[in-house]
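Ligand: GBH. Inputs:
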Amino acid sequence: MFLWGTATASYQIEGAVAEDGRGPSVWDTFSHTPHKTRDGHTGDVACDHYHRYAEDVALMAGLGVGAYRFSISWPRILPTGRGRVNQAGLDFYDRLVDALLEKGITPVPTLFHWDLPQALEDEGGWLDRDTSRCFADYAAVVADRLADRVSMWITLNEPFVHMVYGYALGMHAPGRALMLGALPVAHHQLLGHGLATQALRAAGARDVLITNNCTPVWPASDSEQDLAAAEAYDILHNRLFNDPVLTGAYPDLSAYGVELPVKSGDLETIAQPLDGLGVNYYMPTRISGPGGGDLPFEFEPITGYPATAFGWPVVPGGLRELLGSLTARYGDALPPVYVTENGCSYDGLDDQERIAYLDGHIRAMREADADVRGYFVWSLLDNFEWAEGYHQRFGLVHVDFETQRRTPKASYHWFADYLKDQSTDT
Ligand code: GBH
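Predicted complex:
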């Protein structure tokens, strides 16, 4: 059965950051540091989902989705990242899972969507190999509590984006700007994925996925320089995270002149069999060469397409291209694919542009040469859009951040009708 759903992430919606024993995360620290987020916005309250989850589950039931992808806040479960377990944190996800199941909605938790416990960051965060082991211990604690009711799990969300924005460029928490010095973060996240997959299986999890942010890479021309640059970017953005989990080997990183801190046995751990690959798609990336400084590529704007409120080009065919290229590259090594995020930022309740965006991308997905088993709209609610604060609205449901009032947008009603048609003409 195809899984239609919506997606969110803990720090972007929950609020209640100091309640029921939750410890601080890197995003609390970062958003409270002056000038890191637009207008100094923080996730202190966000959508207050921690208290309003029942209303949000009812909104999903009204939408008619079969699944909900949410993330679990590591510092709610282990306030200092390791050691003492905070039962009240587990209780929250227990209530959420039960509320979803009561409405016939399949819970699909992601264990890490960027809110690392600050205590672990203080010891090096994902630059430190030990964080991988802590992640697996945390996965075991969560699965012990929920695996009797949760069968599908996602380990990491977009390890590429977390590495680049969080550790290479410093635009996201933890705000480190190490450029290529951030590359160990890729390996430690992937090792954490492999170890957590083992822990989830041991606790009885049925389906385990990783979610990667993937992009079709378009060379700016067919000059040799642009083609080489595009290949180098494809290696960094897509293959660095897909190859090791699917084939047990890293791609050739010689264009970057760095080596990953791989120890013997790591690649076997990372390449645990998976039941699905989660793919988040927003847009293609256009690249030219030879690049400046330490990087073998340069970004080029994509013109000739409509743009979202964020300025991102709307290219539905990029999703068809991306899914087809995964099939072509990995063949039998590619498990079923789930589009675990796709969506756009626009203002207003009569969001016809969002309807066009979703309609176009869903059509492109269905035309793709790939075994696609699910599609999750990012996002259910307008929420804390990281460095952009509350300025970018990705929700099917509008949130008034003064009153917390939820109002379904035109796209919510469109998606509800779309899902109704799906269930009658199968
Ligand atoms: C996802 O990341 C996240 O998982 C989610 O939490 C987030 O809310 C959602 O997307 C919307 O942003 O052309 O320079 O502007 C998406 C990762 C990284 C994809 C930035 C688009 C645009 C680069 N995004 N990228 S630029």
